[in-house]
Design brief:
12% strand; single chain; globular; 105 residues; alpha/beta; three-stranded parallel beta sheet
Length: 105
């Protein structure tokens, strides 16, 4: 029996390895689940760009709107358990009332 993939959260500056490295390693190991990153770095900052390029499903800011987006996402994940939403749905939920880092604005 194969376990259902679970969503993963990553912060860019983690104590043992960066969120960028952790995300890259997860993707290289074949993890296809959701990885939502959080960072205080501004959009279009080189470190944030590298974090997102490592394979994040979505990246949100560590501010009040980011915290609200995480609460909405967690609520949706709990409501949908055990079926997890698609990466597109995660981006839609996070973008609802919040500008995702994937937006061009």
């Amino acid at each position: 029996r194969r376990d259902t993939p679970r969503p993963c959260g990553a912060q860019w500056q983690m104590p043992t390895m960066s969120g960028t490295e952790a995300t890259s390693r997860l993707r290289a190991a074949g993890y296809t689940g959701l990885i939502v990153g959080m960072t205080g770095d501004p959009k279009r900052c080189p470190e944030r760009d590298a974090f997102e390029a490592a394979g994040l499903t979505a990246c949100i800011d560590k501010d009040q709107s980011g915290a609200q987006a995480v609460r909405r996402l967690l609520g949706e994940l709990i409501a949908m358990a055990p079926q997890l939403p698609s990466p597109e749905r995660v981006r839609d939920v996070l973008a609802s009332g919040y500008n995702s880092s994937r937006d061009s604005s």
